[in-house]
Specification:
With 230 residues, the chain is α/β, with parallel strands linked by helices. Helix content is 38%, strand content 21%. The protein has two domains: 120 residues, Rossmann fold (3-Layer(aba) Sandwich); 92 residues, Alpha-Beta Plaits (2-Layer Sandwich). The strands form two sheets. Strands 3-2-1-4-5-6 form a six-stranded parallel β-sheet, sandwiched between helices. The longest helix has 14 residues. The chain is globular. The two termini are 27 Å apart.
Length: 230
Amino acid sequence: MPDKRILLFGYGNHGKFIAKGLLDDGFEVRVIVSDEKYYTQAIEDGFDTTLKVDVTKDEALLALNPETYSQLVCVMEDEHLNVFLTLSLRSLFKACYILSISDSIHTTKKLQMAGANKVIDMYEVSAHKIHNMLNHPVATQLLEEFVTHANGIGFREYVIPENSFLHALMTDDIDLSEHGVLLVGMIDEELGHHFTFVTAGINHKLDSGDTIVCIGEKEYLDSFELEIQK
């Protein structure tokens, strides 16, 4: 299955920025919308493979051949429709990887129950950003400027393999500075499939199969990927 093909449902406030970001990162993005306004906007923005589809119809979803995409991203403006779509996709395509976007804690729980592999909670992201700005304003500004202006800086996800040195470590005890990367957050499988920032104040135990997200220069991110396999 191609690693760079994304089927993105929705082109509203979040969807259009996610689509552009994925495109800039080299992904092949096909946008699916259910509204004429968003269809026109996506086409005008250069997503010329955009389709207007009734996502409440199983036959319409089947016709999209979602199995040929590496990820299905659900970011419909209507949160109820987004939950319904996530549920429908999981029911129809058991093996597909589904990422859904949420604007509230309650919707996050519904999306997890609907079968999303990962839920990005925009409420939590915003809350943590505000928390950091209030408690660490200088550090937050420096980090944002560093990421925005420095070449080669990015984020990377790592799934912790069996027998990795990270297995069984507590997040409060982890110092990855010697590897040139910084731990941003993780997905602890024991707690569910949602992303948790290290600033949340919860001391997690990492296990094989958990996912961590780090920030750093590309060469250090590449080296660290090899290191955690040892």
